[in-house]
Amino acid sequence: MSSLPPEPILAARNLSKSFAVARSGRDVLALAPKRRLQALRDVSFTLAGGEILGVVGESGCGKSTLGRCLAGLEAPDRGELLWRGQSLAAGHDRGNRARRIQMVFQDPYASLNPRMSLGQMLEEALYVHGLCNGAAERRDRVDELLLMVGLPPRLKDRLPHAISGGQRQRISIARALAVEPEVLIADEPVSALDASVQAQIINLLEDLRTKLGIAIIFIAHDLSVVRHISDRIAVMYLGEIVESGRTEYLFSRPMHPYTRGLLAAIPIPDPTRRTHAPGIEGEAPDPLNPPLGCGFSTRCPYVVEACRAGRPALASTADGRAVRCAIPAASTAFEFDPC
Fold this sequence. Notes:
Oligomer: single chain
Strand content: 15-25%
Largest sheet: 8 strands, mixed
Shape: globular
């Protein structure tokens, strides 16, 4: 892992985001007010230049909503985004924000225009942002972008349906890189790909970080993949960060029971090295009706009355981690090493 600069390039402070959800059945006929689903609750973190931050958690925990808020595709209800210490308001200075922060989506086919060739899509990004002088320079830059993501320039005349899923994801990455961003948000970029292609895309992102110095927020649910690529990891549950810290610390001595349960669920082929730590029981609570106090209290094997009395704060630890737990010491005895 690379050494990280001390000052963050991007910071989030207490980001919160909710969505209106219509009531069903007779409530709709009665014109009852819509309920609010709290997708993000007071999410705070920092991202250093050139750093790869992994964001993990179960489906529905708010990972993609966080990415969309960071990219300006959703406006948070509350909280603040800072770019190099300056406020980055949603909708303000939209052009510069789009150049600074780009996003790669989970489904590369859905995020590409099926009626435009690969070269046309890359040229369009260059044209909109005025990054090249004339069509000839744009075409040369398209060739450079294709080579940068490991594709031959001869593919630029093809349509998205004529290439493989891995190649489509490379095109999505090339399009994001066309505007020379400083932060790349990768939202489940390998979950729809075969295992061998996943490894190729992961290696590509690592190479781009090394060559371009770009910072990456890598959103995924596969902890093994996140461990391989990330400098730090933020674990999300029910719309909030419950633990964050350096990858090696989080995997060797997780402090939050939810993190511990996620690690215990990772398959280990050697039965003599399997952990006997308790897994995660039951289903995630309804986000429209979250539990009082700690959001994980309904599934936590260490729950005590203090967990239900109030929502724990995100507290810092001596080794630079942050954990949202009333009794984090309950899980420090767990050690995980699948390698």
